[in-house]
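Action item from last week, closing it out:
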Amino acid sequence: MALSRDRPVIDICRLCGITKPLTFEHVTPRGAFNAFPRYYPPAQELLANQVEGTPMSGNVTLNPTGAGAYTFCEKCNNKCGRYAMHFIEWAIAWRNAMDAQRPSNYVGLTQATRRARIMKQIMSMFLSANPPGFGAINPEVRRYVKNATSIGLPPALRVFAGLTPTLDARQAAVTGYLSLHRPSSTFSEIAFAPFIITMTIGSAPPDDRLRDITFLAQSGWDDRPDTTLELPVMEFTGPIPGVFNPW
């Protein structure tokens, strides 16, 4: 049941791309409401339960320190710590705004925001959520996260956001979403309250309600402008990425 690490995890760091001992990377940061144990049923079993109604076995894996995995080396993990505090402040502000403005379908917030540092944290989370190959074929993303002065994302990548009160977490590496009613989508997803964050690759987001926040990446390291956003509040009940409850 418990996640046990009696020996070092040695693999490719998803930020620097070098094989070395890895440390545990919280996704989202520990201070962004991710300091509690998380329980994970087997993914295939959970999907079969949602799609076919197959009973759950009750087997789970425990991450005692929160959601995340061994994906970054110590040096890269420490480097991303300079972004995490700004993302944490952002998450707390949006959670407070959502609590104050519900049951509205949209929540607005104007806040002086370190846009670059928040987006660098977001992109570090997508590097962590995807296999090492994602960073290898997208070196611009690794460079953007590693270098404080780097500005902008590759043209094919866009980042969308929403809010959720759903306490279940959901994370997906790059996957596809096909629908008869809307364009297909290629995306990666991190859904952990209060945020739903989706990174698309050359496509529209899986749900049109999500709001484009890619512009945050165009700010410089020391920029702290007032940022006004209105984000949708969306809930989800299953493990399938990109699928959210209708209003």
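Closing note: The chain has one domain: 9-232.
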